[in-house]
Amino acid sequence: xxxxxxxxxxxxxxxxxxxxxxxxxxxxxxxxxxxxxxxxxxxxxxxxxxxxxxxxxxxxxxxxxxxxxxxxxxxxxxxxxxxxxxxxxxxxxxxxxxxxxxxxxxxxxxxxxxxxxxxxxxxxxxxxxxxxxxxxxxxxxxxxxxxxxxxxxxxxxxxxxxxxxxxxxxxxxxxxxxxxxxxxxxxxxxxxxxxxxxxxxxxxxxxxxxxxxxxxxxxxxxxxxxxxxxx
Length: 231
Hints:
Blueprint: H1 2-15, H2 30-65, H3 80-83, H4 92-97, H5 105-113, H6 123-164, H7 169-229
């Protein structure tokens, strides 16, 4: 500011000269005036540079502090049935064993597979019905789990689009975190599907064991009947 005032003072002195002073030749230090103007121009350039730096700092600050609504992304995935479609672990015994009647997708598979319902009420017929219900339940659980995985995979490209449109570092980090979380959900569901496959395999082995036990029981009952009929 002192340099600006000095230049203005010199210019004012020049303009203040009256016409009556023609005989006097004012002495102007042109070198000093030129230097002052140059220094003034440099000061103006420095101020503009500082303003640009301030704008950049403000933009950087906004990039780090702009809030991100993580739950607002891919809202179709905010569904408990997608996050964990499997039934509770303590319910699996009744479902896979057939003691629990089919429900949901299991009903579709039961109706699709079912041909005849025995009505004699014997142990064999009761077990036959339970086996049919267990198979339908396992198919229903697997189908529901697969549908949840497919829905989640279909929504992941939407998160990728959000990532491409992100305008701040915080948004990028938040979206990447959400994608990682969704990938973890998919991996967990795949692990559940693997465990369900093990249960189904063991249930099949159980059916074979039941048939062998029923055969042995039938033989034992027949022998017992023969022994009791002997004199």
